[in-house]
Amino acid sequence: MPATPAFPRPFGLLLAASAAVALPAAARADDTVDGYLARIAALNHAGPQLNAVIAVNPEAQAAAAAAKTMAGPLAGKAILIKDNIETAEPLATTAGSLALAGNVTRRDAPLVARLRGAGVVILGKTNLSEWANIRSSFSSSGWSGVGGQTRNPFATDRSPCGSSSGSGAGVAAGMAWAAIGTETDGSVTCPASMNGLVGLKPTVGLVSRTHIVPISHSQDTAGPMTTSVHDAALLLTAMAGSDPADPATAQADRRKTDYVAALAGASLKGVRLGVLRKAVGDDAKVRALFDRALADLARAGAELVDIDEETDPAMGRDEQAVLMYELRVDLGAYLAGLPVTVPVRPAPVRTLADAIAFDRAHADAEMRWFRQDQFETAERTTDLAAYTKARANSLRLAGKDGIDRMLAAHHVALLIAPTAGPAWPIDLVTGDHGLQLGAGSLPAIAGYPHLTVPMGAVEGLPVGLSFIGTAWDDAAVLKAGAAYEAARTAPLAKPTFEPWRERPAQ
Length: 506
Prior knowledge:
Strand content: 5-15%
Order of helices and strands: HHEHEHEHEEHEHEEHHEHEHHHHHEHEEH
């Protein structure tokens, strides 16, 4: 095996790992670009070393100055962008892989261009589970060859969940006003839940996917990760819209709305919510927290309807077949379409096979902790007829015969469940091993909206509440989430920036 080369980190402004940096008291309350940069310097590669941000925009301060001349609710708001989404700054878009360490395209993804046009300032790029957590079946969420292991601000020895791990940890740590993540199945909602944030996976096709490193055109979407439902609605309003280069967005201009205006008078009075009892799991503390959320919802006027149904295991089986087929095709198309001037090091990576070969040649850097079984399976998954059948079946089970059937049969507007369990300990040796609960795969496979809102914490570790609707119900899930946010009685945890330890019973 050839020796692993020393890869330069693709930082715009290098933040060297060093001794802990004291964060001035004034900076902790400073929501300017300079204030966020101070927090990144103090918390990211110094202090608790959260590894949430892998590239800082060297043009951020100039962009902030320019934003002062703009009007609108997003003018000057500083956000972080997951590093599988291209931006026009002189930063690489790596998807966390050293294979794309030189992928400096200088292109804005259309969603970034929309945000920039609204006055948003791009602070930098966030770490993620490498290749959006599709390389290996045994990965540690939040680890990438480029950025190392992202850590949860609420307990630095516990997982931030993935794949939008850096986006979640960065906002929770106060390194930005908000962030953009991406989801194929759980990659916005899980890290939002475990980092105490609001996270929205929109209807697939509401937000453009152009110039985003893909997994699956059937399920991929970008979404906002914020500290309030209002802020998520602000970002979605700016991000949503049709893109001629992304056929899935053909209806977006007709379907989108002002999601902030839609929050006006947010109320749960008389709203029937389907409680997915099989998605609650067996953990007593999660159940108790969920019961408290149900009581809050009921006091706010919601009518709760129990739904005690199992998910057909064929849905997940066929989803996996779809993702393996589409990964080879969609990632290959993205890599092949990179500008010829992009100096990808050490040699152009233009296909999934190239990425596999790169990892084998640089196994010391890329595959110390886990391999690439899913990449290798995807490269072998070429049966178009089997893929077509699997996609039709998984879509039916999640959508028409899943969410849509339950909404109609039980006469409910939305479905609710815990989003995920509390963060599990980081384990690079054996990978992720958290509680099995939640219903995120249903809206992920169906392409329907899924909102998570903080509902409290278990032993200081955040847990979210999911609101799930049918296609284009994004305004409805946001409105319900805002009403719950106002009615919530459970206290929310605060980041400790320390390893988890046993605390006095609450």
